[in-house]
Amino acid sequence: MKLQVPRAYNFNAGPSALPLSVLEKAQAELIDFRGTGMSVMELSHRSRTYEEVHNQAINSLKDLLSIPDSYEILFLQGGASLQFSMIPMNFLKSGKKAGYVMTGSWSEKAFSEAKLFGDVFHAASTKDGNYRGIPKVDHLKYDVDDAYLHLTSNNTIYGTQWKDFPDSGDVPLIADMSSDILSKPIDVNKFSLIYAGAQKNLGPSGVTVVIIRKDLLEQANTSIPTMLKYSTHAKNNSLYNTPPTFGIYMLGEVLNWVRELGGLTAISQRNEQKAKFIYDAIDSSNDFYAGHAEKDCRSLMNITFNLKTAELEKKFLEQAKQEGFVGVNGHRSIGGCRVSSYNAVPLEACQAFSEFMIDFQTKNS
Ligand code: PMP
User: Fold this and answer.
1) pLDDT of 350 strictly over 90
2) What DSSP state is assigned to residue 3?
3) 212: which of 5, 52, 167, 337 is 20 to 30 A away, CA to CA?
4) CA–centroid distance, residue 37 to ligand 1 (Å)
């Protein structure tokens, strides 16, 4: 099954595939955006036309994720990685400690960064099992007066995903949702802060979305640089300084596309179908392909697996590349194979890849 030429079968882990219709709309509007005689990139961020784009993106996100009025939606820069520092800077108070659930490399990075600012601990870890799993929500260890509890909802490198989230009571729950935000409906009310770099499900790199509960904002440390305070951006509708205007425009268009597809329930059904193509090829392979994640916490966004020998894996990856499948190599830190099937990856791409997997197995067993 072929995609519309010249689009690639793009399984990149991020930046990753964007919806074709969004790219076409951006292309059509590039030279003259809504009669302004300029592109969105050339508009003043203080202009009314840009402000409409900005507010429309905020409102669409609010609608799609059913975000209550008690939250602020912020568009920041510095990627999810800057959030690793901003969170402890703002919310890790002296005398308090923060719990981190360790489920992969991104949790480790978030933890190391927080350690620079205060007292942190592992609320649970699946490192001993080579990050194949996610801890059970009732196995997390933390105290009622902790500053916050941090988790990574989808582990982009290891290919695991939380299926349900803890109810952390009065302890603010903070989630790095960089690689699965908007892939399914979630109950935002469980979280005090959600953050995500845009470059997987939301749009191009350069925008970081933060959804933060207003009462948490009020408790933040004050003696930190202006740009690193969430309150600065909240007070200024993310227009304290020049925001990444083109990225925010693209985000708004991606959100429109999600809505047109039927919203998060429809997109999550589509994501399940897509991932099933590939997990089925793994499960019916008689161990020719070995999935990395434990079955009950398999990611629908990043599907990770290995072949029996390094030679066979190399041959598989080379042939995948020749067949036009892009980005199937595992992350440089762990190797193996990884198919990232984010929202904008079409069903046909996953189907074509599963057919390739079955064919490769037939020819090489
Ligand atoms: N968290 C997760 C789960 C990620 O997948 C990534 C990037 N792949 C990051 C954080 C870091 O994001 P950024 O490059 O936007 O800083």
Assistant:
1) yes
2) P
3) 52
4) 36
CA distance 303 to 124: 23
Q: Are 11 and 340 in contact (CB under 8 A)?
A: yes
For residues 129 and 103, the answer to whether their CB atoms sit within 8 Å is no
Nearby residues of 24 by Cβ (< 8 Å), 6 or more positions away:
none
Model confidence over 156-183: pLDDT tens digits? 999 999 999 999 999 999 999 999 999 9
DSSP 115-169: HTTSEEEEEEE-GGGTT-----GGG----TT-SEEEEESEETTTTEE-SS----T
14 CA distance to ligand 1 middle (Å): 8
Q: Does residue 179 have its Cβ closer than 6 Å to ligand 1?
A: yes
- Beta-carbon count within 10 A of 95 CB: 8
Active site residue 176: yes
Ligand 1: residue whose CA is nearest its atom 2: 178
- Ligand 1 pocket residue status of 176, Cβ below 6 Å: yes
Structure tokens at 112: 């190391």
Domains of the chain: 26-260 (3.40.640.10), 263-364 (3.90.1150.10)
Q: List, in sequence order, every beta strand (DSSP E) within 187-301.
A: 193-197, 208-213, 289-291
